[in-house]
Every structure is written in C-alpha cells, then in structure tokens.
Amino acid sequence: MKEKLPLIVGIGLPIFLIIFVAVSVYLPSLFVKPKYNFIYATGSLYDYDINVIDGRLSVNSKYYPDTTYRRIPSQPTLFLYDVVNDKSKQITLTQAQSYILDPSDKSPDGFTVGRSESGDSSFFPFFYGRNDRGRYLMGKGLNRKVTDQNYDFKFIGWITNE
Known about the structure:
The structure is a single chain. This protein is an alpha+beta fold. It folds into two domains: 1-31; 34-159, no CATH class. 20% of the residues lie in helices and 35% in strands. The protein has a five-stranded antiparallel sheet. A three-stranded antiparallel sheet has the order 7-10-11. A two-stranded antiparallel sheet has the order 2-3. Strand 8 (120-121) and strand 9 (129-130) form a beta hairpin.
C-alpha cells in the first residue's frame, strides 16, 4: 500500500480539485432565485421607438405617412421572460402595456440582462474557439440564457406588478 500511495495521491488529487472547482462554481447558482420577470423585444427595432413612460410601455412608429416613402414598417416581437420557469413567451402589445415596468438596467433584486462576456478563443488544444451568442440573465452567480438573439434585442423593463 505504501508503494501505491504516491500513485493514488497523484491521480486522486487532480480529480478532487476538478470536483471541488465544479461544485464551487455551480452550487451557488442552484440557490439563486430571481424574482422579477421582464419584457424584451426582438425583430425590427429600427422602425419603432420603444420606451417605458411612467411605468407603461410606449411603442411608436418612427415613420410618418409620406408620398415618397412607401415602406411599411414591421412591428417588433414582444416577449415575456418567466424567471421561475426559465421560458420566454410571445405576448401582444396590449398584454405588455398591462404591466407596470421598471426600465432600470438592474432588477430590484440585483440581476441584469446582457451579453455573456465568455466568448473567447485560445490555442489549446489547437485553435479552440467559443462564442456564447445570445442574451443572458446574470447576477449573484447566475448566468442563464434567455434568447439566442444577439443584435435585434432590446430589454424593455422588469415587471413590478406581479
């Protein structure tokens, strides 16, 4: 047994360290529970001004009737992200306007919605590259993917009246 002790330690210690790091990284996110759902828009965001005024959603076309401009603007698609079920569902403008919204970057319980900063490239093990496209709900050790939309995405606001 004494002869095999260095071999056991040499193999067991790296495995133990990998398990320890994995647990310390993923365990905190299991206990973090965001409380506030939010609304976001995707699609044609250049044709409409989307704002929150006095807690209510306002969507106005940027184009006015003009005889020289005949393009019909397309409306953006609105989604409600449910933080408990980790799902987005499409909603209508009327439904979105029924909520009281907080347009702050950070939710009242400390979470944000944004791009992941983990896209990287490296040389190991021969030109490994990764790009985590999409938008994420982040904060307090949580990094949960909301949508694959990266460019045509607008965060509108946190729902405060649910």
